[in-house]
Amino acid sequence: MSEALDVMLKIGITERRIRNPHCTQAAQQCRLWPCPRTARRTEALRTFRFTSVAGRRRHSIILKNRQRFFCRCNQLRTTPVRCLRPRSRGPWARSGQGGYHACDALAVMEKSLLLVFVSVVAFVTATPTTSGPQCFFQGLGFLPGGSFSFARGVNADGTVVVGPSNDASGLSQAFRWAAASGMVGLGFLPGGNVSDAHGVNADGTVVVGSSIDASGHSQAFRWTAKRGMVGLGFLPGALGSSANGVNADGTVVVGSSIDASGPGQAFRWTAATGMVGLGFLPGGNFSGAAGVNADGTVVVGGSNNQAFRWVNGTMTGLGFLPGGNGSSANGVNADGTVVVGSSNDASGHGQAFRWTAERGMVGLDFLPGGNRSSATGVNADGTVVVGTADDASGQPQAFRWTAETRVQSVLTLLQAAKADVNLFAGWQLRSANRVSADGTVIVGDGVDPLGLRQGWIARLPKEDNEDCEEDENEDELEGRDQRD
Q1: Which helix (H) or strand (E) holds 411?
Q2: Domain housing 352
């Protein structure tokens, strides 16, 4: 229902009969934050301080006038949101008699909009969604006739996933997945019959990857709904190219191209400049770009067995973990200050790393009993890292890292968050490849209960100590209020 209300606001349904502006502001926020699936948002009650029951945080709203309201859920609510507010006397009152009075927070809607509302509710309840705080897990399936898929990228809000899947021909085809549409094949470059999607921009409208072209070579592409799949060409004298990342607005594409020198060179593409080689680290002859930050000014990847960060025409090596001699950067956060990837260490094993200018390259460790890990994605502010790590038995597991929890398997996190075990029973989650901007939605690869390789999408709670029915914490809400 909350998703439907959100959509209603976006399509222009207005509010009337508002009696108390503070009460209304609290209720407006309250109704847009979903309750657990078995409940519905009912009201915002003003409360004096943040409350906690059995270790669970409750939804607290802090308005600009510093009044605080608490949103709660009602299992049986069928009426619009209400806001109850203390009349006067009591610990929160200034004068007058104690008690509460109700004020309308959601206006009576015009009869002509009732059908629209019903349609929106039907749409929201009939399709999977990544909005809302509830945890979930879902396999992405396959293209018609296919038997494998891989999730390689996800957009900023976690609603669009891209990657490859085979189709009835048995050959790989790039796809774009959304909850409403499911998995949709993006086709191939003219004359080609194989394609693979590697990245997607922030709003999910631009997809990049590679496709075989009419000459039989792999060529980087950029896809939009309006223009379809468009080849980006090659570096001068090259025989192939692949697009591996795209910036937030879809105007900057990065990847690698096999140039005339042989091994390959990282590139950065824009419509104005075309494909431009980024060069190599000193003494090197090979490079490849794996990711780009939000505004397209920072590119990361690897050159001659060392992770690099490219800024304003200068490629800088990021070094190795202590005792190591090989590294590669696989992802970068929104402002380009946090880089993640993998480096071998003194033991010779590959270990996930997180790099910042202040601390340099720091190993993220392993799963308990394991000795190998690799970081493949990072969220917008650099606080959540995802990747793959071996467990004690040597089997690869998708992981999520935060400074508080360190490396934890996604499967363990889903179980701890009390997600519905029926959703992921029998799955082996092998790799987490990318993560949404807020760090809650993770996409990756695994083996489904039938033994088929299949891409998946999962949502985890934003707070490490929350379960699937909990919302944002008080500190985040207060910080948001102060920024408004």
Answers
A1: helix 410-416
A2: 136-459
